[in-house]
Design goal:
This is Galactose-1-phosphate uridyl transferase N-terminal domain-containing protein. Pfam families: GalP_UDP_transf (PF01087). With 338 residues, this protein is an alpha+beta fold. 23% of the residues lie in helices and 20% in strands. The chain is built from six helices and 13 strands. The protein has a ten-stranded antiparallel sheet. The model is unreliable at 39-43 (pLDDT under 50).
């Protein structure tokens, strides 16, 4: 049944923004399914530059799993053929945010993680152990990038589906390394500092688990955030306080691989395989030690079910037609076929 709740405005204490929950705009939560969008490449295209045997068509390779493999690789990390930032430019000096416009060189790294050698295979099709290997590939690349003093922040993200920003249908994710700390990360750290100063606790460690918990594993929980910006948004959070994703070890990667796959499969089954984005929100690389107690990394999964309009662009407030408590019920009840 449709929710009988009244409209609410909730504060997202992690990102320091307000979200309007408007059930008057909602159908039943279970009706929020993605509309099928024909992909012109999905049926006709069986091979592309990311496929095994086409390695010569790609930008230079950085590394692969297994490292000694030739044609039987499982994961490749390569340079982006059309990078947003250039690794060939000189790194800018330390950037101080003053009052006026600032321009620096477009230095940075933009890499691609090819998650499978086979064109039709998506992340949800991989066994959990190989999803874990994808996570460990992220970690290995971040470890390489954080050795550079000029890199201040690394963003790992995945775009699935053309309307979510994926230009290639072959399953892949991306890593961008920046000489600056981007505003969303800065705002998140500041917001979490304010919460810590008021309570003495990490805001993400304190996230409610009862009616917002979707699933859990040995080292992680998956929740719908209390002030979810988007319908059916999911966060996967380390149970134990951890500031940086790159501190992930093999045991935790294996555990996270299972839970990440489970969340993506549940979302796909219940919402008709929607386009989605996921982002790994980690602390800046050169974070001050005093900021570690309130910096807690997490994965944010956002199915693309609504369109951002003028109100959101004008105010920075978002309208979400699905209360997270209702989204949790829908996601919990998904039966995973054997």
């Amino acid at each position: 049944m449709a929710t009988s709740r009244s409209a609410e405005i909730r504060k997202d204490a992690v990102h320091n923004r307000w979200v309007i929950f408007s059930p008057a705009r909602a159908r039943r939560p279970s009706d929020f399914k993605a509309k099928p969008v024909p992909n012109p490449n999905s049926k006709t295209q069986t091979e592309c530059p990311f496929c095994a045997g086409h390695e010569h068509e790609c930008a230079p390779e950085i590394f692969r799993f297994p490292p000694e493999s030739t044609s039987d690789w499982r994961i490749r990390v390569i340079q982006n053929l059309y990078p947003a930032l250039s690794r060939e430019l000189d790194p800018p000096p330390n950037i101080e945010c003053g009052g006026g416009p600032v321009t620096v060189t477009g230095f940075g790294f933009h890499d691609v993680v090819i998650e499978s050698p086979a064109h039709p295979i998506h992340l949800t099709d991989l066994p959990p152990a190989q999803v874990a290997d994808v996570l460990l590939a992220y970690k290995k690349r971040i470890d390489q990038l954080r050795a550079l003093d000029s890199i201040k922040y690394v963003q790992v993200f995945k775009n699935h589906g053309a309307s979510a920003g994926a230009s290639m249908s072959h399953s892949h994710s991306q890593i961008m390394a920046l000489p600056i700390v981007p505003p969303t990360a800065s705002a998140r750290i500041q917001s979490m500092k304010e919460y810590f100063d008021q309570t003495g606790k990490c805001g993400i460690c304190q996230i409610r688990q009862d009616d917002l918990l979707i699933d859990e594993s040995s080292h992680f929980i998956s929740v719908a955030p209390f002030a979810a910006t988007f319908p059916f948004e999911i966060w996967i959070i380390p149970r134990n306080h951890s500031s940086h994703f790159h501190d992930l070890d093999s045991d935790k990667a294996s555990d996270l691989g299972r839970l990440l796959k489970l969340m993506l499969v549940k979302m796909s089954l219940q919402l008709n395989n929607p386009p989605y984005n996921f982002m790994i929100h980690s602390a800046p690389l050169q974070i001050d030690s005093t900021q570690l107690p309130f910096s807690h990394w997490f994965i944010q999964i956002v199915p693309q079910l609504t369109v951002m309009g003028g109100f959101e662009l004008g105010t920075g407030c978002y309208i979400n037609p699905v209360f997270p408590e209702d989204a949790v019920k829908v996601l919990r009840e998904v039966t995973i076929p054997n």
